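Onboarding guide, step 5: your first structure request.
Type a short instruction followed by the sequence, for example:

Predict the 3D structure of this protein.
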Amino acid sequence: MNFGKLWSDVKDHVAFVLVVIVIIAVIIALAVVAQRILFKGRQETRQKTRNIAVTGMLSAIAVVLFLFEIPLPFAPSFYELDFSELPVLIGSFAIGPVAGVTIELCKVLLKLAIRGTTTAFVGDFANFIIGCSMVVPASIIYHRFRTKKAALGSLIIGTGVMTVFGSLFNAFYLLPAFSDLYGLPLDQIVAMGHDVNGSINSVATLVLFAVVPFNLLKGALLTILTMLLYKHISPIIKGH
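The system replies with structure tokens like these:
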């Protein structure tokens, strides 16, 4: 047994877990602080028990949507489109950013419990952190102004944040982490992208021609669906 290789793998996994814990803690803290500021002085008639029940219901819907992933013709197979952020966005608009982060986290944990992971947990962590990069800014902006125009603007800004952050995060952390933890050289990952798009020949072009359009497409579709559905669903969530 190669104990040096084993110890290196253990250190890589422990380091990844620590990074995950720290980032999740930062996101939760940001959502809590933002919600306290946004809701300060606002008369809240919604019951905590109802909010918890709604959060659980939306988490269940999100994990079901998370299990149905759609492959894309311009991206390698590990980038698949899903609509699990739709109930997350609806919950964050109706209840607040803390609910959005909670639903996002519960969705990922439930998916891991049901199906496990095929990406050494990197893909699941990526879904959470990049999903939150759209949901948290969008919900903060929406709750600041609470108008239909603000909702649309918040979703557009959220899509922009998700695209920029998701692209940089993939290039500088997620792809190298996936390569290390999954044991797949970066060259092979790039080659998988090259197989579907001949313009992809490096990590930078993989991000430019796969990750960027993937996030833009996902954000655009989520924006359309949220704008179409939220007005009809929010009275039910709020108990009106």
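Each response can be followed by summary notes, for example: The two ends are 64 Å apart (CA to CA).
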